[in-house]
Amino acid sequence: MRHIEREELKPEESDQLLLLPGGHPPLWNHMDSIGPVGLQQREGAPGCSQEGLPCPSDSSELVLECLQQFKVTETQLQQIQASLLGSMEQALRGQATPASAVRMLPTYVGSTPHGTEQGDFVVLELGATGASLRVLWVTLMGTEGHRMEPQSQEFVIPPEVMLGPGQQLFDFAAHCLSEFLDALPMDKQGLQLGFSFSFPCHQTGLDRSTLISWTKGFRCSGVEGHDVVQLLRDAIERQGAYSIDVFAVVNDTVGTMMGCEPGVGPCEVGLVVDTGTNACYMEEARHVAVLDEDRGRVCISVEWGSFSDDGVLGPVLTTFDHALDRESLNPGAQRFEKMIGGLYLGELVRLVLAHLAQRGVLFGGCTSPALLSRGSILLDHVAEMEDTLCPSSPLAGAARVHALLQDLGLSVGASDAELVQYVCAAVLTRAARLCAAALAAVLSRLQHSREQQMLQIAVATGGRVFERHPSFLSVLQKTVMLLAPQCDVSFIPSVDGGGRGVAMVTAVAARLAAHRRLLEENLAPFRLNHNQLAAVQAQMREAMVKGLRGEASSLRMLPTYVRATPDGTERGDFLALDLGGTNFRVLLVRVTAGGVKITSQVYSIPEDVAQGSGQQLFDRIVDCIVDFQQKQGLSGQSLPLGFTFSFPCRQLGLDQGILLNWTKGFSASDCEGQDVVCLLREAIGRRQAVELNVVAIVNDTVGTMMSCGYEDPRCEVGLIVGTGTNACYMEELRNVAAVAGDSGHMCINMEWGAFGDDGSLDLLRTCFDANVDQASINPGKQSFEKMISGMYLGEIVRHILLRLTSLGVLFRGQQTQRLQTRDIFKTKFLSEIESDSLALRQVRAILEDLGLPLTSDDALMVLEVCQAVSQRAAQLCGAGVAAVVEKIRENRGLEELTVSVGVDGTLYKLHPHFSGLVAATVRELAPRCAVTFLQSEDGSGKGAALVTAVACRLAQMARV
Ligand code: 0WK
Ligand code: BGC
Ligand code: BGC
């Protein structure tokens, strides 16, 4: 690791900065020293410049003029730094940026390595080192183990494969993979692969990445715009040699950053200068507009190769850069990369040498076919030629350059070698300084995003330009120091080109994939398909028929003695009670020709009263009525009262209802088996001076149906999805064995909450449902309700979260006391967490209030758990409604049925997707019924009052 002391550099020195370590005077000064002795005279040979050779002083001018073009001033570097920073921040804000700016691509790598990663991984590297791909076997030993040297093999990619059909390239990669694995003595089951793919890609996950555009000499067809992981998976499948799971696709800069030696890092910037160039860094997630994250960091691949703000780069681009770009595979693109990347440096040197040769300054004014052919001077050549600038034996150095130039068919004059070396130095120095300007922009961005004045940061470096041109790094460091003086930067060379880093990311991806698999395994039973829902519909239909016939059925199909929905002629003032939902309400309902006016008050029924004695409960109810009457100035008035009592009652008449069993957390004693109207009247009797005329007892489903039926006479079904769930509907009296008469209709309270208590739902019940049921005050009862309604969904979710935590999938496996607390995860959290407008960060806020230590992946998984539980609930509810409306349609022998369903209940009303899913399931299972769902505005209290009004009207008519 190389650290440069601050006082080492004075500003005016920066511009002179050039690749001449060891105190050589700067090139420009050198130029003066070239002088006349350096240049030979030669006339008229083929490929030689026809124009007379320039005199020595002219040629040095020409060389100076040439190399001067590669000089980038500090001001220009600062401008590039500023412009690049501007374009980075614009892209982060998701503001459309000009095509040629930096891309700032999220990589879904959210943290630098914990060092806990373990296992054997295969790494396939494509694109980092140009015309070769590398396969590695990396063993990660976690925190304990020592570092195992990866095994690797490099394969040269034939040019026709780099430019041919994409399938050919990926088949070639899959072939290399098998060849490498064939040679390995390891056990090759369940291979986990990390794919280092060094090109600009839109990632949508650790293992989903779409190629934006090829760079660096690659130009395969049918790949841009496609998911490269899928292309690789398909190729491995076609190869059929090994079953390999591709867990992650990683940009080489990310592999480099993640491969940073533990103990010296963590590196938070990855910088690659190989055939191409790019950098990545850890950005605050909240600054990345495309990600709805407000916590933690995410690694961003800058893709600075495409930076080309003509304003600042224009003056720096030389004629050689333009020539190189024109001849390149992607003219106009990657302009910044073409001044820094190893694939281009050799070419730039070649173009300069050819130019100088044609101007008679070099090689006696003679070129050679090799010098004139593109790509004849490679990065390694430049490295060798530049490296020899200060070897232990300068002569040896010059001789080496000589030899290299001769290999290019050039006749090398005395000073040509040194001149060529200066050309190499100029091209490389500029590359290093431009790279420094870009890195300085990244460092400034890090300072901004972390609001830090002084930034101490470790930068992992990778790529053959670093490996082959040691002075590249020193120029880079010095320039970074000048451009980002407030950053204390340590450069950490990556040990194996990032292979370990890719394996680290793959390990994280494999862990996340394993978590995802466990999540899917636990949620799969909640994902009901069409056949399962149709089976529920059919079973419910069968249970309805049996219940109506009075045969054994989990559906009691209780007659309610409501024979008609309101016809709008009802009139008068009525008291109504609404017990059984979230709130207990007392209502005054005034029914006039102009409509219904409701005044109501909500009262609480404390748990100890709901689970105390029946007398206590009904006395509490009467207390509330008296309080309400006083407040409404109704004291002493005996208004007809309708009692919405939302529990299973066998009604013997409109005002007689025997409570069959409590549900929804109620268990007041001495009530089951009792006529609750009597219990109410007794409580009224216990209270002096109170007179109430209890006319009707209705179930909340009936009250809801009536309430909506007042507005829409087609409303013949009532549905509650709240604390509990249930439905009622208008059945043909002839089908109701318990009630005499064959004509007309009777509203049936299905009490579908108990559906499945006979085991008919056991195939669908999960272990989580069983946990919730066992912990409830009525185990074995209300099976359907416990899979659907608000009192239980939160608990089902909590049990799933406990299981996933115990599996280490969530909350890093830490079981918290809070999460083990019953009812701590309210069903309303599902509605909040699943609301589209809620970003993941708000999901996290809800969960953090529960004291759950979570990562963003956790929040995403909790969201999926909530979605699976509520979706199943809505679909089961939809299957129930489909059974009811189909029954009505067939009752009436109709081809098509148009019917409305009155609905109430907090879950149905507040959950963002529940109602839509119910309607979609009904459409799917009862396509011949056009069903309109009417959300009841006034609750079932109004319905109870209307039932009372109808009863009073009928009683009135009976009396006259
Ligand atoms: C409001 C109705 C009431 C019913 C309740 C159900 O007026 O009769 O019991 O909806 O919804 P919950 O309050 O249980 O969510
Ligand atoms: C690619 C980058 C890559 C860089 C270094 C560029 O051409 O666009 O994705 O990181 O080369 O290999
Ligand atoms: C009760 C029903 C009621 C439903 C909705 C169930 O627990 O048994 O009578 O309609 O909850 O409140």
From TrEMBL:
<comment type="pathway">
    <text>Carbohydrate metabolism; hexose metabolism.</text>
</comment>
<dbReference type="Pfam" id="PF03727">
    <property type="entry name" value="Hexokinase_2"/>
</dbReference>
<keyword id="KW-0067">ATP-binding</keyword>
<feature type="compositionally biased region" description="Low complexity">
    <location>
        <begin position="17"/>
        <end position="27"/>
    </location>
</feature>
<keyword id="KW-0021">Allosteric enzyme</keyword>
<feature type="domain" description="Hexokinase N-terminal">
    <location>
        <begin position="520"/>
        <end position="710"/>
    </location>
</feature>
<feature type="domain" description="Hexokinase N-terminal">
    <location>
        <begin position="65"/>
        <end position="260"/>
    </location>
</feature>
<keyword id="KW-0418">Kinase</keyword>
<dbReference type="GO" id="GO:0005536">
    <property type="term" value="F:D-glucose binding"/>
</dbReference>
<comment type="function">
    <text>Catalyzes the phosphorylation of hexose, such as D-glucose and D-fructose, to hexose 6-phosphate (D-glucose 6-phosphate and D-fructose 6-phosphate, respectively). Mediates the initial step of glycolysis by catalyzing phosphorylation of D-glucose to D-glucose 6-phosphate.</text>
</comment>
<comment type="similarity">
    <text>Belongs to the hexokinase family.</text>
</comment>
<dbReference type="InterPro" id="IPR022673">
    <property type="entry name" value="Hexokinase_C"/>
</dbReference>
<dbReference type="InterPro" id="IPR022672">
    <property type="entry name" value="Hexokinase_N"/>
</dbReference>
<dbReference type="GO" id="GO:0006096">
    <property type="term" value="P:glycolytic process"/>
</dbReference>
<feature type="domain" description="Hexokinase C-terminal">
    <location>
        <begin position="269"/>
        <end position="508"/>
    </location>
</feature>
<dbReference type="GO" id="GO:0006006">
    <property type="term" value="P:glucose metabolic process"/>
</dbReference>
<dbReference type="GO" id="GO:0005524">
    <property type="term" value="F:ATP binding"/>
</dbReference>
<feature type="domain" description="Hexokinase C-terminal">
    <location>
        <begin position="717"/>
        <end position="950"/>
    </location>
</feature>
<dbReference type="GO" id="GO:0019158">
    <property type="term" value="F:mannokinase activity"/>
</dbReference>
<keyword id="KW-0677">Repeat</keyword>
<feature type="compositionally biased region" description="Basic and acidic residues">
    <location>
        <begin position="1"/>
        <end position="13"/>
    </location>
</feature>
<keyword id="KW-0808">Transferase</keyword>
<dbReference type="InterPro" id="IPR019807">
    <property type="entry name" value="Hexokinase_BS"/>
</dbReference>
<dbReference type="GO" id="GO:0005829">
    <property type="term" value="C:cytosol"/>
</dbReference>
<dbReference type="GO" id="GO:0005741">
    <property type="term" value="C:mitochondrial outer membrane"/>
</dbReference>
<dbReference type="GO" id="GO:0008865">
    <property type="term" value="F:fructokinase activity"/>
</dbReference>
<keyword id="KW-0324">Glycolysis</keyword>
<feature type="region of interest" description="Disordered">
    <location>
        <begin position="1"/>
        <end position="54"/>
    </location>
</feature>
<dbReference type="GO" id="GO:0004340">
    <property type="term" value="F:glucokinase activity"/>
</dbReference>
<dbReference type="GO" id="GO:0001678">
    <property type="term" value="P:intracellular glucose homeostasis"/>
</dbReference>
<dbReference type="Pfam" id="PF00349">
    <property type="entry name" value="Hexokinase_1"/>
</dbReference>
<dbReference type="InterPro" id="IPR043129">
    <property type="entry name" value="ATPase_NBD"/>
</dbReference>
<keyword id="KW-0547">Nucleotide-binding</keyword>
<protein>
    <recommendedName>
        <fullName>Hexokinase-3</fullName>
        <ecNumber>2.7.1.1</ecNumber>
    </recommendedName>
</protein>
<dbReference type="InterPro" id="IPR001312">
    <property type="entry name" value="Hexokinase"/>
</dbReference>
<comment type="pathway">
    <text>Carbohydrate degradation; glycolysis; D-glyceraldehyde 3-phosphate and glycerone phosphate from D-glucose: step 1/4.</text>
</comment>
